[in-house]
Amino acid sequence: MTVSGRTRKWTARDIPDQGGRVAVVTGANSGLGYVTARELARRGARVVLACRSAERGAEALRRLTDEVPAADAEFRPLDLGDLSSVREFADRYERERGGRLDLLVNNAGVMALPYRRTTDGFETQFGVNHLGHFALTGLLLPQLLATPGARVVTVSSMAHLFANIDIADLNSELRYRRWPAYARSKSANLLFVHELARRLADTGADVVAAAAHPGYAATNLQAAGPRMAGRRAMELSMAVVNRLVGQSPETGALPTLYAATAPGVRPDSFTGPRLLAWRGAPARSPRAGWTRGDVAGERLWAASESLTGVTYTALKA
């Protein structure tokens, strides 16, 4: 923003009025997702907190309404690691909300977990971070297309720079290493946004597909992997690193909120923290060239449709 001839850092106070808008935020029970949902609700949006745990989701809703008493918010169960849950969420949304969805924030994710498989047999990081959100977006696409000015914001990570997707081994069946698998899932997020933006443009749709990342934000995401692996020393180390160098979830959520609400956000843009893509106010973020490849995007899209059974029929010629 420009104020009196100088550039001012964008903050949550700059979020435009969201009155009358409906938003779905995945992983909204804690961290970046919770802050994103809370700030959208604070600006008047009707927010659906889509969370895997009923207990944590209900608690997040209580906390949100305590912090924002006028909030119009609700919790709905969604397990991105179970495609039947994704379909149930989308079906329920259509029954209860009808044809309107202004904003879908694909925020939920897992990081550097020991090797696990989702309910449907996918490697967990690829299954949750990419395939679950691919399916959810496709199933909610009719509502997004029916809503003027709708946006889809997918949260990636600068970790994507460390590994491109392997189209021949999307589920890491040949070799699994937790960090490269995480990086590949985050590259898949960006490649999905690129291909979705391209297909939306080809059909003349009004929906904006954009991406964001938080830099290094101190959330419970960093400790989940070591905790699952029983690596107590690593879990404690991550907690120390979070305290020393991590920015708060409030600051880490700003790029997502910017991509979701700021005027003029372009399709296939990638927003992150200004300072070395690590921390600070939202700004345009660097990204790997492989996340803009049309051929790679088409191949990932086709594989994702095949694996999930979700086809974006509204975008087909």
UniProtKB/TrEMBL annotation:
Keywords, in A-Z order: Oxidoreductase
Q: Quick check: keyword Cell membrane in the entry?
A: no
InterPro entries assigned to the protein according to its UniProt record, in alphabetical order: NAD(P)-bd_dom_sf, SDR_fam
Q: Which Gene3D superfamilies match?
A: NAD(P)-binding Rossmann-like Domain
| Sequence similarity | Belongs to the short-chain dehydrogenases/reductases (SDR) family.
PANTHER family, per the entry:
PHOSPHATIDYLINOSITOL-GLYCAN BIOSYNTHESIS CLASS F PROTEIN, PHOSPHATIDYLINOSITOL-GLYCAN BIOSYNTHESIS CLASS F PROTEIN-RELATED
Q: Under what name is this protein listed?
A: SDR family NAD(P)-dependent oxidoreductase
Q: Which organism is it from?
A: Streptomyces flavofungini
